[in-house]
Amino acid sequence: MVAASIFYLGITVLLFLIFALIVVRTYSGKRKERMESPKYRMLDDDDLKGRK
Question: What sign results for the dihedral spanned by CA atoms 10, 13, 16, 22?
């Protein structure tokens, strides 16, 4: 019973660390421009690029 509890605690800690790494990588300063650019690209008018 004690071994199972330690195993599940280890899995929980491992999953939390993976989640924390994903959050840090996603919101790091180097990736900010790349993550924000699609938001502004959706607002661009496609009709002004070749259509009348």
Answer: negative
